[in-house]
Specification:
The chain has 2 domains: 1-83, no CATH class; 89-162, no CATH class. 35% of the residues lie in helices and 25% in strands. The protein has helices at 6-20, 26-40, 71-83, 149-161; strands spanning 46-52, 58-64, 85-86, 89-90, 104-106, 111-113, 118-120, 123-125, 128-130, 135-139, 145-147.
Length: 162
Amino acid sequence: MREEKRIPRILSLLEALWKQQPELRFHQLISNLQHVYSDENANYGKQQVRKLDESGNWVPSACLDFFYLEDEKWEAFLQEQLTKTNDNILWFHHVTDHKDCTHFYIDEENELLLSSLHLVNHKYYPVYYDNEEKDYYIVNESGKRCYSIDIAVKVKMLKQRT
């Protein structure tokens, strides 16, 4: 039996991605994501087909078939899409338990799996490092960077322990 907890995780990732582009219809979002996945994974799911055009002629075309894609791979891809940079802002999804965090904070000296999560309103947020500003920050759900001396202190304490 497949893990049931994957369902809300995947739906939550899709929701976060959709909120970045709310003008898209749901299936436009899914189609766009599938094309990105296929392009980044050796044309996964791409099938060459023929279809009828408006004139009634058969013309070559292509479609995507993701029927056999494992949920773990799709979930990892969605998570990756959220953490890609967008105008130097790292997008993310909060987690409810720090053990579930797959994010990293990166600075000039370190790349560590986050056990240094910042707790805001009972949600854990990954901490990132801005090399230009030389400061630690989190990114809230609206995509705004939030700087805090508290975050920097927590990260420095973690570094001292490791």
